[in-house]
Amino acid sequence: MRRVLSIALVGCSILLSANGIAVAEPNMDPELRNKAKRAVDKGLRYLREHRLEDGSWSKSVGVTALALRAYLQSHRKYDESDGVFITAPIDFILKHVNDDGSIGESMHNRNYNTAVAITALQATGNPKYQETIRNAQNYLKGLQLDDTDGYPKEHKYFGGIGYGGDERPDLSNQYLAIEALRATALDPKDPLWERALVFVSRSQNNSETNDQEWAGNDGGFTYMPGYSPHGGTGSYGGMTHAGLISLLFAGVDKNDPRVQAAYKWIQANYTLEDNPGAKKKQGLFYYYHAFAKSMKAYAEPKITDANGVTHNWRNDLATKLLSVQDPDGAWVNTESGRWWEGNKDLVTAWSVIALNHAIND
Amino acid sequence: MTWVSAVWTRPAVIEIGEWLLTVLLAQLTLMLLIPATNPFSHKALSIAGCVAMIIVGLLCRCARATSPVPEAFAVVTWSLAMAAGACLLIVINNPGPLDAVHMISMGTATFVLAVAIAALHQRLHSQRNNNKYTSRGYTFTAAVVLVTLMPLWLGPWLDWLAAGELTVNAIVAASPLSYLAVMADYDYLRSEWFYQHTPVGMLRYDYLPKLAYSGGWLLLALAALAVPRVSAWVRNAFNFYVLHKARH
Q1: Is A303 left (phi over 0), alpha (psi -120 to 50) or beta?
Q2: Which residues from B are below 8 Å from A162, CB to CB?
Q3: Total domains present in chain B
C-alpha cells in the first residue's frame, strides 16, 4: 500500500512539474528533521530526569519556564493532560507570582523571569492563566523607562527595559520583554511599541537610523547603546538576532532600513561555529537560540552569505546542535559559563527551543 | 564671649560639629567620584551615600586616638550618627520626592553595618601598642574598602576560574555593598557601571534575604564586642584554676 502511495506521489510531482507548477521544496532536509526530532526527544528526556521535586529546573522561574516552553512547542505537542511533568513546572511558576504582577523567585532578573514565564504560560493555551498574564504584561510595561522615570526621549535609556527594578536597560532584556508581549498579544497600538523601538534603534550600529554619536555602520546590534561586553561598541551575533527579533515583533516592516541593515550584517557574518563578534565562545547558545527565532521570524528558508553561498539555516542549525549534544541528551557551553551557559538545564532548554523552531515550519 | 567659647567647647557640640564635618566630607567625596552627568539612579546614589558616610566616618574615627566613652555605647552612638548622616546624604542627592520606606531601610542598613565595622575597629583600640592605633585604623579602613569592592576586583578571577555558584554567592554576600543593595531592592551588580567593570553580573549569583544579611552583620558586631569580655572571663577562669591547683 505504501509503495503504491509513494509511486502515486512521485507521479503527481512529475505531472505538476511538467505543467510548470512548482513543487515546494521542503524547508528542511527530511532525514535531518528526523534526526533533529530524536535530538529533541533526548533533550526533553534529559530535562525530565533533572526536574527537581518542587517542579522546577535549577530552582529558577526563568529556567523552568524555558524548559516548559521546550516541551510545549516540541513536535510531541505536549500539553497539561500529558501529566505532572507539564503541570508541576506550571505550578512552580504560579507559586512565584508576586503582588506586583511579576513572576520570579528573587529580587533580580524580574523582567527576564516574568517575560519567559508568561511566554510559557501562553504556550499552554489554557485560558485560566490569562489574568496572571495580563498582570505580568502590566508589570513589564511598567519596567519600560521613559520621561516619568526621569529619562526623556533624548536619553539613551528611553524606551528600554532592563533586568527589572531600577537597573539600566539592555537589548537582551528588551527583546525578551518584546517577545513576551507579542506572544501574549499586547495591543499593537500600545505606546510601548513605539518607545521600545527608540531604544532598539539606538542599540544598532546604523548611523542612518541611530542618533547616537558612537553608532557605526555595519548594521549589527550591540548590548546597549554605546556598550558591548565583547569590547567597545562592536556588533555581535547574539544581539543582532535579538535586535532583528525586536524590530520584527514590534511591527517594523521587513523592508525597513533597520531590518535590512541587520539582515545584511547577519549575511556578512553568517556562521554557526561561534557567536560572531563575541569573545571566545561566550554567549554561544544564547546566539543559537536567538538565531533560530529571528530566522524564523524573518521567514526566509535560505540565506546567502557574504561569499554568495546560499545556506539552508534550518539544516545548518540542526547539524550544528546535533554535533554538540552530549550523550546524555543535554547541551552545555563547555568553554564559557557567562550568562549561565554552564547550566545544563538552561542550555538544553534553549537548544530544544532552537531545534523546535527549525523543525516546525 | 566667654559663654560662646563655653558652648563651643562642650563635648556634645564638638561631636555635632565633627559629625557635620563628616557629612560634608562624604558629600564632597561623592561629588568628586560621581560626574555631574552621572548615569546613576537614585537607589544607586543612596547606596553610594551610605558607603561614603561609613568610610569617611571611619577615617575620621581613626584620626581620634582615644574614645572617652565606654566602647559599646561609643559603637552604638557612632553608628547612629553614621545612619543619620547617610539619610541626610540621601535627601541631599535625591531630587525627587522622598520615599520614607527607602530612607528607613537605608538608615537601618547603614546603622547595622556601622555597628559591625565600628565593633571590629574597636578591637584595634584594645590591642597593645596603642601608639599604633591610628595607623592600624587606616589599614583597617583600607581592608573595609577592599572587602566592599570584592566583587569588583575578584570578578575577573571568578569568571576566569569558572567559579561555582557557591563561591560567587559567598563573595557577593561578603561585600557590605550587597547588603545595602538588597535593602535598597537594587541589583547593583547589573547596574551599568558594575556590569561594565566586573563580569560578576554575567555569572549566576543570588543575594541573601534581608533578614539573613542584617542578622549576619549584627552577629559579627556582637561577636566583636563580646571578645574582650569572653577573653577576660577565660583568663580569670584559667588563673583561678592555676591558683586553686597551686594551693592544693
Answers
A1: beta
A2: 190
A3: 1
